[in-house]
Amino acid sequence: MKKILLQFICLFFVGNLQAQQNEWLFATTTVEYANNLKNEFPNKIEIIETKNDLVAVYVDAETSLEIKNYGNLHGPGFVYKVDKDDAIQSLHSNISPNVNALNFTITEDAFVEQCISLVEEDNLAQTILTLEAYGTRFHNQPSGIQASLDLKTTWEDLVAQFNRDDVLVEFYEHSFTQQKSVIVTIPGLEFPEEIIVIGGHIDSGDFWNPYDAPGADDNASGIATLTETLRILLANDFKPKRTVQIMAYAAEEIGLYGSADIADNYSSNGKNVLAAVQFDMTNYNGSSFDIALNTDEAYTSNELNLFLIELLEYYNSEGEHQITYGSSQCGYGCSDHVSWAENGYHAAFPMEAAFNEVSPYIHTPNDTFASMNNDASHSVKFVKLALEFVIETAKTSQLAVIDVDENEEVSMLISDRKLIYDFSQSNVDLSSIQIFDTSARNLISNNKLKNRGEISLESLKNGAYIAVFKSEKGKTYSKKFLLK
Predict the structure, then answer these.
(1) For this structure, is 74 an active site residue?
(2) Which of 220, 240, 390, 463 could form a disulfide with 131 if both were Cys (CB 3.0 to 4.6 A apart)?
(3) With contact defined as beta carbons under 8 Å apart, do 148 and 181 qualify?
């Protein structure tokens, strides 16, 4: 996860504070921490512009390090910007995605069920240990550069193992670091110009600890999640309708540089990314629930979060694939999903725990697999969610047997702030309904439903929601909707 500040070191991309003590930089941060610095160092920070909870600032690079004194190891902090215009523009990113994520559907039952049953915890453990063994993967260290080179080979070997000549593995090279991002492309057969992205960063460590940063959780676990997701898709000969790209980003820990470089390029070239989901730290089980959906409003898509909730309710509400979930916030741009969001794309960040309950070992020498009890079972849940997301958004071009009862005639519609439903012409016996908002809060529940009726929505504020019906047999029916 991107740590507090660090971004300023990318001005010259060296780990030498003395070389930067007289430098100033443009950045964005939260109002709270900008005010903290302003109160303590009034002549060392200039607040340029404020919007909502974020500010654009011009700050002395050395003073910016003081941000560490106001937070914990993993933030909040600054996001480095190239210049004043870039900092101000990032506060006013009103670009609208060119797709409505409320329209994402669940249709690939059989293929998803087949894939999520194949996740192997040992594979995740082995990838985490392999990446941990580099000692550090900090972007400017030889081992960090080598880790990106070796990951490309690992992913190429998977592609070759399953004889997928159509799948491309390539470097994305950056001008600011020798560490490379790695991108796998599984081409879409029907809508190749429409792109689905899942990603996570390959680097580890930070300015204070660039040399002894094994980064088992942050973010070997995320790369392990992506690698196992890729393996299962290839093993099942996944040939999507839309293009799928799996990305390992360079230099996240110094200000989201790798992902920002890619997302900026995609936006400038008009690439149609329908949605991007970030996997950054997936293996420390610190909360009472399994997955915390990030709800930082400036950096995540409410609509995409609703679709993740829909997936979790549909595929993971009970049984062997059960995944519990809640929500949390970083309060700042804490990982690579921000790069996509700032370019107007739908972005989401399912976290390993609530923000204040993630691994306490990150960015230290103790971020090891042993510190996670040599157990990769928590990451298994994230692989399942990644598979569900990729398959249901990109869709399969193969013929699939989908678990649909031809006798199911159901109707769900929104009218006059009422949800009107009718299952009376089907063989479904309803048991319950729950309505969630984008923060995964259950706002309306009814466990005694008739097969036909209406639910008042008058208590709900304007916004996006999802209604989840469940039958006596445990089958799920859902409807995403927007109240205006």
Answers:
(1) no
(2) 220
(3) yes
